[in-house]
Backbone:
């Protein structure tokens, strides 16, 4: 089971928390649609900041969005202008959903930006960085060794794995899967703290899916 589903969803309620927190008496589909619109807008606008986690809390018509990034300066902007523009973009996206439903309502957006500590290693940020380098036509084998060696230099990391799926070797090759790992990775152990991240690289040969697992010890 540990090899077939996401490690973070497998551990929900055990050592992983929920990324969406709300109380919906009815029409949970609408609440889920709104949260996905918020996530999509955040990823499109601040992907360069290295997004580790997006958490959303909703109470009545108030949205609290917590964004954890490795480069908070790119999100905040000069004088907080970046957060204002991001809030307006989210409000515009939610307003469009309400118009499509032919309903009216007001809502408030509160965005909090948290910095990822330098000592911490994030699987999501690593996957996004890998995708950026892969789009620059850098050799995938060299990248896999480089990133794994960099992760394993951290004493708190017990193991890591990177897996690629797609045309990884240019347009002249066929689609296949490549992976490389270091250390141990106990996916079936629920008390194991495993960070998981994924990204997509748009290369000349096509799209390449990137998955990253990082084992940070037992809780």
Residues:
């Amino acid at each position: 089971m540990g090899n077939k589903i996401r490690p973070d969803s497998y551990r929900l309620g055990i050592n992983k928390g929920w990324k969406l927190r709300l109380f919906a008496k009815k029409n949970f589909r609408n609440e889920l649609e709104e949260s996905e619109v918020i996530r999509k807008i955040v990823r499109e606008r601040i992907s360069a900041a290295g997004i580790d986690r997006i958490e959303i809390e909703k109470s009545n018509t108030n949205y609290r969005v917590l964004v954890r990034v490795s480069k908070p300066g790119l999100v905040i902007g000069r004088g907080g202008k970046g957060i204002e523009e991001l809030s307006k973009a989210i409000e515009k996206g939610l307003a469009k959903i309400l118009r499509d439903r032919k309903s009216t309502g007001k809502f408030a957006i509160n965005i909090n930006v948290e910095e990822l500590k330098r000592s911490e290693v994030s699987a999501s940020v690593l996957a996004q960085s890998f995708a950026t380098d892969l789009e620059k036509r850098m050799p995938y084998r060299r990248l896999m060794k480089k990133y794994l060696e960099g992760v394993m230099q951290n004493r708190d990391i017990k193991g890591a794995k990177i897996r690629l799926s797609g045309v990884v070797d240019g347009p002249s090759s066929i689609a296949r899967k490549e992976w490389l790992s270091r250390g141990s990775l106990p996916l079936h152990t629920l008390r194991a703290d495993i960070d998981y991240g994924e990204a997509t690289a748009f290369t000349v040969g096509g799209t390449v899916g990137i998955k990253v697992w990082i084992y940070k010890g037992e809780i």
